[in-house]
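Hi L.,

As promised, ATP-binding protein:
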Amino acid sequence: MPLEPHAPTWLSELALAYESGAHGQFVLYGNSADRFVLDGRLVSLTRYLDAQLLGGFQVVFSYDAGNGLAVTRGAERLRDWPAFEKLGPLPREPRAALDVVARYLRYRANLRALGRGEDEHIAFILRGVDQWLPGGRPGDFEIASLASLIRDFASEAPYSELAFASFLIADNLNDLHPQVAFNPRVARLRIPLPDVPRLTAALAQLRLDHPAAFDPGQGDETAAQALAGVSISALQSLVRQRAHEHRPLQPADFVQVKKALVEGDAAGLIEFVESRRSLDDYHAPDVLKDWLRQDIALWRAGDLRALPMGYLLCGPVGTGKTYLVECLAGEAGVPVVKLKNFRDRWVGSSEGNLEKIFRLIRALGRCIVFIDEADQTLGRRDSGSGDSGLSGRLYSMIAQEMSDSGNRGRLMWMLASSRPDLIEVDLKRPGRVDVKVPLLPTASAEESAALLNVLLKRFGIAPGTGAMAGLALPTLLTPGAAEALAVKTYRLTRTRGLDVLAALEECLTGYQPPVPADVMAFQMRIAIREATDMKFVPEALRHYGGDAT
């Protein structure tokens, strides 16, 4: 059956694999719960498959745990099956449902062997298969027997000798039983989140269905570009709500709308940040800012050969690693995707959550993927089952994604850590993390004055660096510690009416740095040793990179 002119890649690959005889079983995973545009409607994946691929099939079975087994096409043909009348109501339990289909297939195979009856094209659609055939129960005999039978559908006679196709629909490939998911006789096809053309088509259809949700002057393609990474299903829900409220979507809404929809689809696994800051807001040596701006210029120009795959920001606690990421993203005009509750959410759970995150990130277009406290989040691949570190499988998935050259120019990975020595060496290697930047505290009282002046300026009380020359300003001052001093100084000007210098002087009396000196020196030494270029390290601080005593 010919496909629509602009059929998605996964559908074209599926059709080719079946029609050529290369495969008869397919695992469709990823964005499988989304809606798809079909003949003026938004339909489910099963409806889309049926319309696009299964029009020439005489018999189509479907199964899901909620509805049980059903015959969606060719029920009249089953009446010629002698065993049909004895079946009674079609079963709801997975084992019984699979047995019915297996028996019918064997019946058709026997007829074929006897030269009786015409060949039938038979399809079996199994929805939500990762829910009732999970990969996390290796010792369960019932699960194993189901997996064995489905595996037989793909490769064993008589099923493989028939014009038979089975479609296993799952959210995440890694949540499915490995005997089925990674069967070499199975074609695995990832369904991505919709690209701009498919979002444009969906918006055009939604505009017809719900005109009250749209501004007539707003083009669908422009909106689709702004909403890249959003599922059609989530977009449909939003449009229906806006139509009910008679509140059209506006371009100004897109940032917040996208944030809400993407975070909703990610089920709390990520945080989506659109930053309005720039590198001008970050107090750092010019050499670092110049380097970062050069990379942004390469990114914008599409010259990817010298563009880093990823950065590692390392340095003591409070040196502004997270803030720098937001400033860099704002300067580049791209969103930040923060991996949220990374470690906690995956303890004892499957790789499917990670798979879902990667699916969302790939659909967003250009963005920065940020992993804070990477030493704790990523851990060590050999940490063992007794701790809460990532399993070897999860570690491998992250490492593979970080080194995927196809992501260069689309994703920029940024890891932050005060203990980069605890991150696996191969995760920090070039090709995954190309640039390692030490973020360090101030090296002199003059630098401390400049940093404090920048922060006090936000409160409208900056006295100028020259006016602070007579104060006992600390060195090795981090942005986090300086911000705390600035807030305390502002508080004293408001609550006690002190001028800014008097307030600052009082704050400095008895000042205790938030990070002990020995810890600060240790974290500085590690950061300096990680640096890919010593020009990132001020001359006055380079001695901290020496050997520990």
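The first strand starts at residue 25 and ends at 30.

Thanks again for sending the construct details.

K.
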